[in-house]
Amino acid sequence: MALYEHVFLARQDVSAQQVDALVEQYKGVIESFGGKVGRVENWGLKSLTYRIKKNRKAHYALMDIDAPAAAIHEMERQMRINEDVLRYMTIAVEAHEEGPSAMMQKRDRDDRPRRDGDDRGPRREFGDRGPRRDFGDRPPRGDRPPREDRA
After folding, report:
1. I need a labelling partner for 48 at 20 to 30 A (CA). Which of 21, 42, 60, 126 fits?
2. The architecture CATH gives domain 2-93
3. Helix or strand holding residue 23 (H, E)
4. Neighbours of 63 (CB within 10 A)
């Protein structure tokens, strides 16, 4: 049997319990063909990059599968029929990852830039354009006379 990682996206208006029911349904399909489902991760409701079938968000779920190809084909066939599944992707892998996936790992908060603007310096008030640029001791351009309002 081959090893697969399978991710699917469910509609935003289904509940988390319904997503778990979908996972159990497809787990049953895999097991009926003699396969096994290892790790199952629900990544939760996340924003989509673009709308898919009028949905701006989707529930993401990951499954690690050890099953024959016929089981994967049947699971994908049932996903195409189900209106709650927006997209799915199955990838054959050499070995399953140990531990949580990259989506479930916590990022170190010190590595990310601050969002409150603290590292950008003080905020300017509305309408404050700041001082005029100073060109130092650069001489005026010789091809035109200096303007009276800047002199």
Report:
1. 21
2. 2-Layer Sandwich (3.30)
3. helix 16-32
4. 20
Closest by CA position to 84, among listed 107, 62, 55: 55
Q: Nearest-CA neighbor of 61 among 127, 120, 6?
A: 6
Distance from C-alpha of 119 to C-alpha of 115, rounded to nearest angstrom: 9
Instruction: Quick: pLDDT tens for 92-144.
Output: 998 888 877 778 776 544 555 666 655 556 665 655 666 656 666 666 666 76
E strand segments, 24-112: 36-52, 55-67, 85-93
Which helix (H) or strand (E) covers residue 6, if one does?
Answer: strand 2-11
Sign of the Cα torsion 121, 122, 125, 129 reads negative
**Residue type at 140 in one-letter notation:** P
Is 0.85 topped by the overall pTM? no
Give the residue extent of every domain in the chain: 2-93
Burial class of 102 by CB neighbour count within 10 A (0 to 12, 13 to 18, 19+)? exposed
